[in-house]
Amino acid sequence: MNRKYRKTVIAGNWKMNKTPSETKEFMTQLKTIMPRGRWCDVALCVPAVCIPAAVRAMRETRVGIGAENCNPNPSGAYTGEIATNMLVDAGCKYVIIGHSERRAMGETDADVNAKVLAALEAGLVPIMCCGETLEQREAGITDEWIAMQIKLGLKGVPEEKIRKVIIAYEPIWAIGTGRTATPEQAEEVCENIRTVVRKLYSSKNARAISILYGGSMNEKNAFELLAQPDIDGGLIGGASLVPEKFVKIIEAANQPTV
Ligand code: PGA
Protein backbone atom coordinates (compact mmCIF):
# COMPACT_ATOMS: atom_id res chain seq x y z
CA MET A 1 0.00 0.00 0.00
CA ASN A 2 1.03 3.55 -0.48
CA ARG A 3 -1.68 5.71 0.99
CA LYS A 4 0.05 8.91 0.06
CA TYR A 5 -0.56 8.39 -3.62
CA ARG A 6 -3.48 6.01 -3.99
CA LYS A 7 -6.57 4.46 -2.47
CA THR A 8 -6.49 1.15 -0.66
CA VAL A 9 -9.45 -0.98 -1.75
CA ILE A 10 -10.74 -4.16 -0.14
CA ALA A 11 -13.23 -5.77 -2.52
CA GLY A 12 -15.20 -8.96 -2.04
CA ASN A 13 -16.13 -11.21 -4.94
CA TRP A 14 -18.96 -13.48 -3.92
CA LYS A 15 -18.99 -15.40 -7.22
CA MET A 16 -22.09 -17.67 -7.39
CA ASN A 17 -22.77 -17.71 -3.66
CA LYS A 18 -25.62 -16.49 -1.44
CA THR A 19 -29.29 -15.81 -2.10
CA PRO A 20 -30.92 -12.38 -1.66
CA SER A 21 -32.14 -13.44 1.81
CA GLU A 22 -28.64 -14.58 2.78
CA THR A 23 -27.30 -11.29 1.43
CA LYS A 24 -29.56 -9.35 3.78
CA GLU A 25 -28.42 -11.50 6.71
CA PHE A 26 -24.73 -11.06 5.81
CA MET A 27 -25.03 -7.28 5.47
CA THR A 28 -26.82 -6.97 8.82
CA GLN A 29 -23.98 -8.87 10.49
CA LEU A 30 -21.31 -6.95 8.63
CA LYS A 31 -22.76 -3.62 9.71
CA THR A 32 -22.56 -4.55 13.38
CA ILE A 33 -18.86 -5.47 13.24
CA MET A 34 -17.63 -3.15 10.49
CA PRO A 35 -14.68 -1.07 11.70
CA ARG A 36 -14.89 2.65 11.18
CA GLY A 37 -12.93 2.81 7.95
CA ARG A 38 -10.03 5.12 8.26
CA TRP A 39 -8.26 4.63 5.00
CA CYS A 40 -9.56 1.90 2.82
CA ASP A 41 -12.52 1.77 0.46
CA VAL A 42 -14.67 -1.32 0.83
CA ALA A 43 -16.60 -2.95 -2.02
CA LEU A 44 -18.73 -6.06 -2.21
CA CYS A 45 -19.40 -7.50 -5.65
CA VAL A 46 -22.37 -9.82 -5.50
CA PRO A 47 -24.56 -11.92 -7.82
CA ALA A 48 -26.91 -9.74 -9.88
CA VAL A 49 -30.07 -10.84 -8.06
CA CYS A 50 -28.48 -9.91 -4.71
CA ILE A 51 -27.65 -6.33 -5.77
CA PRO A 52 -30.96 -4.74 -4.64
CA ALA A 53 -30.78 -6.36 -1.17
CA ALA A 54 -27.11 -5.39 -0.80
CA VAL A 55 -27.65 -1.80 -1.92
CA ARG A 56 -30.65 -1.40 0.39
CA ALA A 57 -28.78 -2.80 3.38
CA MET A 58 -25.61 -0.75 2.86
CA ARG A 59 -27.21 2.56 1.87
CA GLU A 60 -26.03 4.51 4.92
CA THR A 61 -22.57 2.95 5.00
CA ARG A 62 -19.24 3.42 3.24
CA VAL A 63 -19.46 0.00 1.59
CA GLY A 64 -19.95 0.23 -2.17
CA ILE A 65 -21.84 -2.53 -3.95
CA GLY A 66 -20.67 -3.97 -7.25
CA ALA A 67 -21.60 -6.49 -9.92
CA GLU A 68 -19.51 -9.44 -11.10
CA ASN A 69 -19.97 -8.87 -14.82
CA CYS A 70 -21.69 -6.58 -17.32
CA ASN A 71 -22.57 -6.51 -20.99
CA PRO A 72 -20.86 -3.77 -23.02
CA ASN A 73 -23.92 -2.98 -25.14
CA PRO A 74 -26.31 -0.25 -23.98
CA SER A 75 -29.48 -2.35 -24.57
CA GLY A 76 -30.96 -4.82 -27.02
CA ALA A 77 -31.43 -8.46 -27.85
CA TYR A 78 -28.94 -10.04 -25.41
CA THR A 79 -31.01 -12.52 -23.46
CA GLY A 80 -29.81 -12.95 -19.90
CA GLU A 81 -27.34 -10.07 -20.01
CA ILE A 82 -27.18 -6.91 -17.89
CA ALA A 83 -26.10 -3.50 -19.19
CA THR A 84 -23.94 -1.04 -17.27
CA ASN A 85 -26.68 1.61 -17.00
CA MET A 86 -28.94 -1.01 -15.36
CA LEU A 87 -26.23 -1.66 -12.77
CA VAL A 88 -25.85 2.06 -12.10
CA ASP A 89 -29.61 2.47 -11.72
CA ALA A 90 -29.68 -0.48 -9.31
CA GLY A 91 -27.13 1.33 -7.13
CA CYS A 92 -23.85 -0.33 -8.15
CA LYS A 93 -20.56 1.55 -7.92
CA TYR A 94 -18.22 -1.21 -9.08
CA VAL A 95 -18.11 -4.02 -11.60
CA ILE A 96 -15.61 -6.88 -11.84
CA ILE A 97 -14.47 -7.38 -15.42
CA GLY A 98 -12.45 -10.21 -16.95
CA HIS A 99 -12.28 -12.52 -13.96
CA SER A 100 -10.37 -15.67 -14.92
CA GLU A 101 -13.49 -17.76 -14.25
CA ARG A 102 -15.33 -15.73 -16.91
CA ARG A 103 -12.36 -15.84 -19.27
CA ALA A 104 -12.49 -19.63 -18.89
CA MET A 105 -16.10 -19.42 -20.12
CA GLY A 106 -14.89 -17.75 -23.30
CA GLU A 107 -14.46 -14.07 -22.45
CA THR A 108 -11.68 -12.59 -24.60
CA ASP A 109 -9.39 -9.59 -24.08
CA ALA A 110 -11.52 -7.74 -26.65
CA ASP A 111 -14.65 -8.46 -24.57
CA VAL A 112 -12.85 -7.29 -21.44
CA ASN A 113 -11.81 -4.09 -23.20
CA ALA A 114 -15.36 -3.36 -24.44
CA LYS A 115 -16.71 -3.92 -20.92
CA VAL A 116 -14.09 -1.65 -19.33
CA LEU A 117 -14.97 1.14 -21.77
CA ALA A 118 -18.73 0.66 -21.21
CA ALA A 119 -18.30 0.64 -17.42
CA LEU A 120 -16.31 3.87 -17.47
CA GLU A 121 -18.83 5.47 -19.80
CA ALA A 122 -21.63 4.58 -17.37
CA GLY A 123 -19.69 5.91 -14.37
CA LEU A 124 -18.90 2.53 -12.81
CA VAL A 125 -15.50 1.67 -11.40
CA PRO A 126 -14.19 -1.32 -13.37
CA ILE A 127 -12.16 -3.85 -11.41
CA MET A 128 -10.25 -5.33 -14.32
CA CYS A 129 -8.70 -8.72 -13.61
CA CYS A 130 -5.58 -10.27 -15.06
CA GLY A 131 -3.54 -13.32 -14.15
CA GLU A 132 -1.38 -16.15 -15.42
CA THR A 133 -1.78 -19.91 -15.25
CA LEU A 134 0.73 -22.08 -13.44
CA GLU A 135 1.96 -23.31 -16.80
CA GLN A 136 2.65 -19.75 -17.95
CA ARG A 137 4.45 -18.92 -14.70
CA GLU A 138 6.63 -22.02 -15.00
CA ALA A 139 7.41 -21.15 -18.63
CA GLY A 140 8.65 -17.75 -17.42
CA ILE A 141 6.17 -15.69 -19.44
CA THR A 142 4.17 -14.15 -16.57
CA ASP A 143 5.31 -10.57 -17.21
CA GLU A 144 4.65 -10.70 -20.95
CA TRP A 145 1.26 -12.34 -20.47
CA ILE A 146 0.10 -9.82 -17.86
CA ALA A 147 1.43 -6.89 -19.93
CA MET A 148 -0.58 -8.14 -22.89
CA GLN A 149 -3.77 -8.48 -20.84
CA ILE A 150 -3.33 -4.96 -19.43
CA LYS A 151 -2.56 -3.37 -22.80
CA LEU A 152 -5.51 -5.05 -24.53
CA GLY A 153 -7.89 -4.49 -21.63
CA LEU A 154 -7.13 -0.78 -21.39
CA LYS A 155 -7.12 -0.09 -25.13
CA GLY A 156 -8.82 3.24 -25.79
CA VAL A 157 -9.13 4.23 -22.13
CA PRO A 158 -8.19 7.92 -22.18
CA GLU A 159 -5.62 9.48 -19.86
CA GLU A 160 -8.32 11.36 -17.91
CA LYS A 161 -10.19 8.15 -17.08
CA ILE A 162 -7.37 5.77 -16.20
CA ARG A 163 -7.41 6.68 -12.51
CA LYS A 164 -10.96 5.34 -12.25
CA VAL A 165 -9.81 1.84 -13.21
CA ILE A 166 -8.82 -0.64 -10.53
CA ILE A 167 -6.60 -3.49 -11.68
CA ALA A 168 -6.70 -6.83 -9.87
CA TYR A 169 -3.81 -9.26 -10.27
CA GLU A 170 -5.08 -12.77 -9.66
CA PRO A 171 -2.74 -15.65 -10.46
CA ILE A 172 -5.08 -18.41 -11.61
CA TRP A 173 -3.15 -21.04 -9.64
CA ALA A 174 -3.88 -19.14 -6.42
CA ILE A 175 -7.64 -18.67 -6.84
CA GLY A 176 -9.70 -20.79 -4.49
CA THR A 177 -6.79 -23.18 -4.00
CA GLY A 178 -5.51 -21.99 -0.64
CA ARG A 179 -2.18 -21.53 -2.40
CA THR A 180 -1.46 -17.80 -2.09
CA ALA A 181 1.30 -16.09 -4.04
CA THR A 182 4.05 -15.04 -1.67
CA PRO A 183 4.07 -11.31 -0.91
CA GLU A 184 7.24 -11.06 -3.02
CA GLN A 185 5.72 -12.91 -5.99
CA ALA A 186 2.57 -10.77 -5.84
CA GLU A 187 4.54 -7.54 -5.44
CA GLU A 188 6.77 -8.35 -8.40
CA VAL A 189 3.79 -8.67 -10.74
CA CYS A 190 1.90 -5.69 -9.30
CA GLU A 191 5.01 -3.56 -9.73
CA ASN A 192 5.27 -4.77 -13.32
CA ILE A 193 1.62 -3.84 -13.91
CA ARG A 194 2.33 -0.31 -12.71
CA THR A 195 5.30 -0.13 -15.09
CA VAL A 196 3.05 -1.18 -17.98
CA VAL A 197 0.50 1.50 -17.00
CA ARG A 198 3.33 4.05 -16.75
CA LYS A 199 4.36 3.28 -20.31
CA LEU A 200 0.77 3.79 -21.52
CA TYR A 201 -0.09 6.82 -19.37
CA SER A 202 1.65 9.50 -17.32
CA SER A 203 3.79 8.49 -14.34
CA LYS A 204 1.49 10.55 -12.15
CA ASN A 205 -1.48 8.42 -13.18
CA ALA A 206 0.49 5.18 -12.92
CA ARG A 207 1.36 6.19 -9.36
CA ALA A 208 -2.29 6.94 -8.58
CA ILE A 209 -3.91 3.74 -9.84
CA SER A 210 -4.92 1.08 -7.30
CA ILE A 211 -3.66 -2.44 -8.00
CA LEU A 212 -5.17 -5.27 -5.96
CA TYR A 213 -3.98 -8.79 -5.32
CA GLY A 214 -6.45 -11.68 -5.38
CA GLY A 215 -6.07 -15.41 -4.89
CA SER A 216 -6.64 -17.06 -1.51
CA MET A 217 -6.17 -13.78 0.33
CA ASN A 218 -7.49 -14.25 3.85
CA GLU A 219 -7.48 -12.84 7.35
CA LYS A 220 -4.12 -14.51 8.04
CA ASN A 221 -2.05 -13.45 5.04
CA ALA A 222 -3.66 -10.08 4.22
CA PHE A 223 -1.39 -7.96 6.38
CA GLU A 224 1.82 -9.19 4.79
CA LEU A 225 0.46 -8.90 1.24
CA LEU A 226 -0.88 -5.39 1.88
CA ALA A 227 2.46 -4.32 3.32
CA GLN A 228 3.97 -4.53 -0.17
CA PRO A 229 4.36 -1.10 -1.80
CA ASP A 230 2.50 -1.88 -5.03
CA ILE A 231 -0.33 -3.98 -3.56
CA ASP A 232 -3.10 -1.49 -2.86
CA GLY A 233 -5.75 -3.88 -1.64
CA GLY A 234 -7.36 -7.22 -2.29
CA LEU A 235 -10.02 -8.93 -4.36
CA ILE A 236 -11.28 -11.57 -2.01
CA GLY A 237 -13.40 -14.59 -2.87
CA GLY A 238 -13.87 -17.25 -0.19
CA ALA A 239 -12.96 -15.05 2.78
CA SER A 240 -15.48 -12.37 1.74
CA LEU A 241 -18.37 -14.77 2.40
CA VAL A 242 -17.88 -14.68 6.17
CA PRO A 243 -18.38 -11.26 7.80
CA GLU A 244 -15.76 -11.84 10.54
CA LYS A 245 -13.07 -12.88 8.04
CA PHE A 246 -13.84 -10.01 5.67
CA VAL A 247 -13.68 -7.50 8.52
CA LYS A 248 -10.29 -8.84 9.63
CA ILE A 249 -8.96 -8.15 6.13
CA ILE A 250 -10.38 -4.61 6.27
CA GLU A 251 -8.65 -4.19 9.62
CA ALA A 252 -5.37 -5.37 8.09
CA ALA A 253 -5.77 -2.64 5.46
CA ASN A 254 -6.44 -0.08 8.18
CA GLN A 255 -3.18 -0.74 10.02
CA PRO A 256 -1.44 2.54 10.71
CA THR A 257 2.06 1.11 10.35
CA VAL A 258 2.11 0.11 6.69
P1 PGA B 1 -10.36 -16.62 -3.59
O1 PGA B 1 -10.95 -15.91 -4.91
O2 PGA B 1 -10.08 -15.50 -2.60
O3 PGA B 1 -11.46 -17.53 -3.12
O4 PGA B 1 -9.12 -17.32 -4.00
C1 PGA B 1 -10.44 -14.71 -5.37
C2 PGA B 1 -11.12 -14.32 -6.67
O5 PGA B 1 -11.31 -15.21 -7.52
O6 PGA B 1 -11.47 -13.15 -6.89
Q: How is this structure best described in words?
A:
The chain is α/β, with parallel strands linked by helices and 258 residues long. The protein has a single domain (8-253), classed as Aldolase class I (TIM Barrel). 40% of the residues lie in helices and 14% in strands. The protein contains eleven helices and eight strands. It has an eight-stranded parallel beta barrel, surrounded by five helices. Helix 1 (20-33) links the parallel strand 1 (9-13) and strand 2 (41-45). Helix 7 (142-153) crosses helix 8. The chain starts with 8 loop residues before the first strand and ends in a 5-residue tail after the last helix. The mean pLDDT is 96. Bound molecules: 2-phosphoglycolic acid. 2-phosphoglycolic acid is lined by residues 13, 170, 175-176, 214-217, 235-239. Residues 13, 170, 175-176, 214-217, 235-239 line the site of 2-phosphoglycolic acid.
The dominant shape is globular
Can you give the helix content as a percent range?
A: 25-40%
What is the terminal separation in angstroms? Answer: 7 Å
Bound molecules: 2-phosphoglycolic acid
Q: Give a count of the beta strands, DSSP E runs of length 2 or more.
A: 8
Radius of gyration from CA coordinates = 17 Å
Indicate how many domains the architecture comprises. Answer: 1
Question: Which percent band covers the strand fraction?
Answer: 5-15%
Tell me, what is the CATH class?
A: Alpha Beta
Oligomer: single chain
Report the total helices: 11
Per CATH, the architecture is Alpha-Beta Barrel
Biggest sheet descriptor: 8 strands, parallel, barrel
Order of helices and strands: EHEHEHEHHEHHEHHEHEH
**Mean pLDDT, rounded to whole units?**
96
